[in-house]
Design a protein that fits this description.
39 helices; 701 residues; single chain
């Protein structure tokens, strides 16, 4: 009977027509003014039409009706309303009121738990898990309780109750192990997390060293195998760590295990017998390097070992780093990843050589090796994709060597630039759109930019600098025409166009990237706000609203992901989801997007009277920041737009810093752009004392 009465409302909602749904609610309520389900659903419909104050008043009124929650339709309508209004406590009250009618309804108890979990209400989540374990015999609920205790303790680590919660969680898991109820990798990870939070590393090792079912779970999970090796190193059981790493690497090729193997060996080396201590690992690496499927990782591990030994004062006990570096380059230079692999070790070896005043000798050696190989690489570059990539990798090493030796002559950076450009833009491989040609175009562009800043970096030479950067843009535009799908070419072009105040073209290229989802958080900073600086408010406002929509979608999606963790029992994901949710809720880019939107709305086109009215009505209380709230902000932005071929500590050769149009907005910027709207509001409202106080705060930044 009730469903038939509500059917027209549901049909309207399914058709995404909230206005019609509202009319159907009113129609039913004229016949039955106290119909609880119709009132509850109307409250939800009001949230969909923007009438939030009315929705809240009606929702609270229905909640106060004792018999209303006996209806499943009323429960659903009211929980949706409170969820849309951002009132999690009231949502839980709905389920609690419903349980008064059906106290043993397992589904309702689960809804209480999940509502608390979605909203990071760990105390309420814990209480709901306790009830589930009391009323229902399901091993899953034990783990819901254990995870709730762990999350509650992590949320308030300084609280005296945190240690009690962790010990209780530990006892519950120990009982689960004894009862045979620890059956999955996910549950084992929860157990290890509980011990880890308490710094019980020796006990973690004991858990991971047992035989039987737990041992099988660990052996079949590469992450747990790696975690065990890490724990053995942290507990200074270096011999066991070496054995565990060897066993792991015999079973699978895992770069993380190679690094831990090296770390354990170096930690256990006896300075008096370094050669003998290292011979075993060298033999293992050599044997694994002979296996074609794992040669790259093993060879790179040989380079890493030799470099670490050199850094640690053991000389060439594991081989000469420079010889191994070039052995690796010779073997893998046809792979695009080769330079990324080896760059860190070239830099580390060069830095370590400074202890022996040998940096110049190291660079001279690398330079000699380059000169020996470069002519042949250039000659054969057109023969195949691999040969072309080999030349690109050597050119990247040449670029690095010039930066490491502090090359400041612009002409040295532009040497052979025509050769690089011809290959990248006009050669036969370029016409075939070989990836190596786009890499060469980027490399040539970086050389042009580097030379431009070295030659014209002074303020008095800005015109010459801009002229040189326009040449770099011509190169990039040619590269984009050849390969429209190349992401990095477009990122470079956006950066240079903004540096030269050419917003429209930068925006067009940015739009072609189809930035979506979390990329708006990590890459949106590249262009957001630059339009307003140049007077293009409308274009920037579109980006602001896209960003705001992303954060809104995220808020609605993440709670569902958290629920799925408990449904699917993938407990190891819960902390990652919670951290990700917190980081986005309190992200620097989120705050910047909001401030840009507020700035744009406050100064968008309109009469002076309309502008004053907007500032008068503006809610500026929600954007006030304290030192504590600023300190809690998390920076998720990817600030490496320009792919660096040099160490970050070489500022004069750091193109990422050199080409930034303006400094990256940070805490001071957010504080300033939080104060300016408040000042505008106080100004138009003639609130003199508040205006003076906020102006003083702004002046102090």
């Amino acid at each position: 009977m009730e469903y038939r009465q509500l059917r027209p409302i549901y049909d309207a909602l399914e058709g995404s027509d909230p206005q019609r749904a509202l009319k159907e609610c009113d129609k039913l309520l004229r016949k039955h003014p106290n119909h609880p389900s119709a009132r509850a659903i109307k409250a939800y419909v009001l949230t969909q039409t923007g009438r939030t104050e009315e929705a809240l008043a009606l929702s609270l009124s229905v909640l106060e009706t004792p018999t209303a929650m006996a209806s499943a339709h009323a429960q659903q309508g009211l929980t949706l309303a409170f969820r849309a209004l951002g009132r999690p406590h009231e949502e839980i009250m709905v389920y609690t009121a419903a349980l008064a009618h059906t106290p043993n309804d397992e589904t309702l108890h689960c809804k209480v738990f999940k509502a608390a979990a979605r909203n990071r209400m760990f105390k309420e989540q814990h209480q709901a898990a306790v009830q589930l374990n009391k009323l229902f015999d399901n091993p899953k609920y034990i783990w819901w309780l254990v995870v709730s205790l762990l999350l509650q303790a992590r949320d308030s680590p300084k609280n005296a109750a945190a240690q009690v919660q962790l010990k209780l969680a530990e006892r519950l898991v120990e009982k689960a192990v004894a009862d045979g109820n620890l059956k999955s990798v996910e549950e084992l990870r929860v157990y290890l997390d509980i011990l880890d939070v308490q710094d019980k590393r020796e006990q973690m090792v004991e858990v991971m060293d047992v035989n039987g079912q737990l041992a099988a779970l660990i052996a079949n999970d590469p992450d747990l195998v790696t975690q065990r090796i890490e724990l053995l190193i942290k507990t200074q059981a270096y011999g066991k760590a070496v054995e565990a790493a060897i066993a792991a690497l015999k079973a699978r090729d895992n770069w993380a295990d190679y690094k831990l193997y090296i770390e354990a060996v170096i930690a256990s080396v006896d300075p008096a017998a370094a050669g003998a201590s290292v011979s075993t690992i060298c033999a293992h690496l050599e044997a694994w390097a002979a296996d074609r499927d794992r040669a790259r990782s093993a060879k790179l591990a040989q380079v890493a070992l030799a470099t670490r030994m050199f850094e640690s004062g053991f000389g060439d006990a594991a081989g000469l780093p420079e010889l191994l570096i070039w052995g690796f380059i010779d073997q893998f230079q046809e792979k695009a990843i080769c330079y990324t692999d080896i760059m860190q070790f070239i830099i580390a070896h060069h830095k370590a050589a400074g202890k022996y005043d040998a940096q110049a000798a190291v660079i001279d050696y690398h330079w000699a090796q380059l000169e020996k190989r470069m002519p042949a690489a250039r000659e054969s570059a057109g023969q195949s994709d691999g040969e072309a990539q080999a030349w690109v990798n050597l050119e990247k090493v040449r670029y690095l060597m010039q930066a490491l030796r502090g090359e400041t002559d612009p002409s040295a950076w532009l040497a052979d630039i025509e050769v690089l450009l011809n290959f990248g833009l006009t050669s036969k491989p370029a016409r075939k759109k070989q990836p190596a040609c786009s890499d060469m175009t980027l490399l040539a562009c970086q050389r042009i930019i580097q030379a431009a800043f070295l030659a014209h970096g002074a303020t008095s030479a800005r015109a010459q600098l801009h002229s040189a950067l326009f040449k770099a843009l011509c190169v990039l535009e040619s590269g984009i025409r050849l390969n429209e799908g190349n992401f990095m070419l477009k990122l470079y072009a956006i950066r240079l166009y903004l540096y030269l105040s050419c917003y429209e073209r930068a925006r067009a290229i940015y739009d072609s990237l189809s930035i979506k989802h979390v990329q708006q958080e990590t890459l949106g900073h590249m262009i957001l706000g630059h339009g307003m600086m140049l007077g293009c408010f409308a274009a920037d406002m579109e980006l602001c609203y896209d960003g705001v929509a992303f954060y809104d979608r995220f808020r609605s999606k993440m709670p569902r992901d958290i629920e799925s963790v408990y449904d699917q029992e993938t407990y190891s994901n819960i902390q990652d989801f919670i951290e990700f949710q917190r980081n986005l809720d309190c992200s620097v880019q989120h705050e910047c997007t909001h401030r840009y939107a507020l700035r744009g709305e406050g100064f968008e086109y309109g009469s002076a009277k309309e502008m004053v009215a907007r500032w008068e009505e503006a809610d500026t209380r929600s954007i006030e920041h304290t030192e504590e709230s600023l300190g809690a902000l998390h920076d998720n932005r990817d600030i490496s737009v320009m792919g660096l071929l040099t160490p970050k500590d070489l500022a004069q050769w750091d193109l990422e810093l050199l080409t930034r149009p303006v400094p990256m907005p940070g805490h001071e910027w957010i504080q300033a752009f939080s104060l300016v709207p408040q000042i505008m509001h106080h100004m138009v409202c003639a609130e003199i004392e508040l205006l003076q106080a906020k102006s003083s705060e702004l002046a102090a930044i």
